[in-house]
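Researcher: Here's a chain I'd like modeled. Treat it as a single chain, no partners, no ligands.
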Amino acid sequence: MIRLLASILLTFLLAAGSVAAQTSEVPSQGWTTMEADGVQWLRTPDGRPFFSKGVNIVSGAMETEKSRQNQAYYWKNFYPSLDAWRKTVGSQLDGWGFNTRGGWSDPSPDMGLALTVDLELGRNAKFHWFDPFDPAMEATTLEWAKKLTAPYQNDPLLIGYYSDNEVGWWNSPLFTWYLKAGWENHTKRVLWQLLHDHYGGDWNLLLKDWVPQGGLGSFEELKRAGSQLKLRAGGEGIHLVDRFMALCAGHYYQLMSQAIRKAHPGALILGDRLPLYYHQDAVLAMRDNVDVISTNYNVDTPDGWIAPYYFEGLQRLTGKPVLVTEFFFAAEENRSGNRNETARKEHPKPGHLMTVDTQAERAWGAAAALVNFARFPNIVGVHWFQYADEPLGGREDGEDYNMGLVDTANRPYEEVTDLFQRLNPVLEAYHKEGHPRASLLNENIIPVKAQNPAIPSSSAGTPTILKPLHSIDVTDQSLVDWDKANTRLQGLQTPQPYVPFGDFHLCWKPEGLYLASIANTFVDPLFLDYKGEFPQAEAFQIHLQVEAEGGRLNHFVIYLIPEKNPALPDGFEINPQLYRQVENGPMERMPIQGHVQRLRKFLPHMAVEAFFPSDWLGIPALKDGMKLKMNITAASYYREMTMTWFGAPTLKSAEDPETLRIVVLRDSTAEQRAQND
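Model: Modeled as a single isolated chain. Structure tokens:
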């Protein structure tokens, strides 16, 4: 074992050295970014490639009533001085293989780790939800940037700044908020002008996309405070909403970038820590104004799977390196008494962040996720959220999660810290090579099977659909039973300049076809003017066309319908409906029990799995080597975005038999098992 560990470390050092050799002549110029052999890295001031392995909230915290009762972490409960805490914790994190202090961490150089800082610049300057296009905003932002960056101007450990945390760019709330503003608001005027120009001042054209509320009857009346428009079903108003959001986002990123560069020349601009989700128009607006895109991320499944569309999409949209600024696992089994919920008095969110049962499962899932993150060529670092558990009963906003490396009594969760201690030193090798090293896995040094986001689910030519290794249960609220790497479909198409907003997974067994989707989406059902049930045509929808040899052409549609539920945080829940059309017959509603489930995740997460029995396809069983004609198409809410496997990326492809392509069913389970063993 010692010899193997030495071999691993030598491999890692050689790999890192081969990258560093390309940049060793670079003079000191502060922290920058670099690319070598198609892999992106941060670069230290002396020219070395750097993969940021960080921890958020490395902080001694503050004395509170809970800390006095030993219900919250506080340095003074364990150390004689703050300096002693800093030196001990810095050394501890270094021993666990970390090299970076993430957001909201103690900035003292005594800790010895690289530093990233969240300025909350936009919020301090009151950019958000006030008046972004106020002419005074530029000067205000610069003034705040100078004030907030002043403590870090001469810190060689500072990598760079986040302008804010989780701004969000939720399109319809922005539109509604500023349309209701008074005419004195400059941003309201920008929105009004956009509406006026888009419809050429023709109110009747506007009415094709919108339903005015409260008797509004002209563009002039839209200037009033409290004005409100709702989407008209069948209209195209959502695209104008996205244009307004893109204007706001572009203005934000330009002002933040300009202010930070003036206040602290040379510091990296690390973006605004996207909130487990991104709107593509906002990312396009960000592209030319940041050095690194930062994103928080809620791991998709307990086995550590990271849906590739998310990071592949950021690469295709921007080409910029990406820093994962939060990822986490919590366990019901914990020593701090965390309940793993956001315990607000109104609308609590139980378990909406990644939560498993035991500390062993927590360590296993986190290890898998860490490797999976590292293997994306555009990810330049991964930060764990957070150093210590949240207080008993939750922090001020009610969030109460076992996210710590240590509990509130300062005792490390050894299963978790051990995985970081073993895995952190070899992440650079994973990142450089882009595939798992079999020796690491076989010797159980890293107890995970890493995903390969580049594994195609189809060969060149005719796509191949594989038989799964394990049975799949579409009633278990889990996608852990899926072999997600080998069932993921490649080649989804979207209109330019956009990219797929989710992944599809497809596999087969003799009893039928299995389909899964992991996607992100956002919807405010109240933004649409409708009565009764939410219109199917405006719902998130997945279309599967399939025709088996000797069978009939079937068109299946899964609609994900928002339904009011005041007991839930969003005020509604999302329930699936399943329909089938055979040949050119009528659409008939099909049972969902055992056939479709939407995983209970709060938006913007959208995970669905489905089972289509072979007898629904008009044949007794599916077989190895059988050829099917098929296509898959999906549209997000309000038909905002569409993606399809074959054909033009429009909903017409979902109904056009000409878009069907031949796929071949393949039983390679023995080969797959050998590969995975």
